[in-house]
Sequence to fold (159 residues):
Amino acid sequence: MTDDAGKRLFGLSPRCARWVLGVSLAVNFLMLGLAGGAALKMGDHGSRGGRYSFTSQIVEAAGPDRRDAVRAILDTGRREDWREAMRGRWEDMATLIAAKPFEAAALGAALDASDARRAASRRQRNDATVEALALLTDEERAALSGGLRENLKQWAKRH
Fold:
């Protein structure tokens, strides 16, 4: 045997260097698999990605002369202070849950009020959607419906 057997690679013993090389190869293969899997999955959804925005599709379906009006109607149905309201709701819940003595009726009332706010928000968004769809022509609504049906077919294939 020669003197090369006892030499160190980057300060590591030959045995340790083999372990580091093996772990490095495993990590590289893992990264390659993750990148390949992500590339294959993204290819399924086309250029839109996996998310279908019905609101965006309504705006795009409208003719150029009505697009701004449709967008304005749909924007009125948005929740401007959604994050603030959600944070306040959870802070109230935390306070009610930790209250001594615990008041189940107060917590129930807070949950009911939260449900009522969400229902009112949904009604507002639904009303805005119906109003925006009323501005579209029959042909535009038919094209929008066809796109929605196609999206449902794609969704069924993925799930």
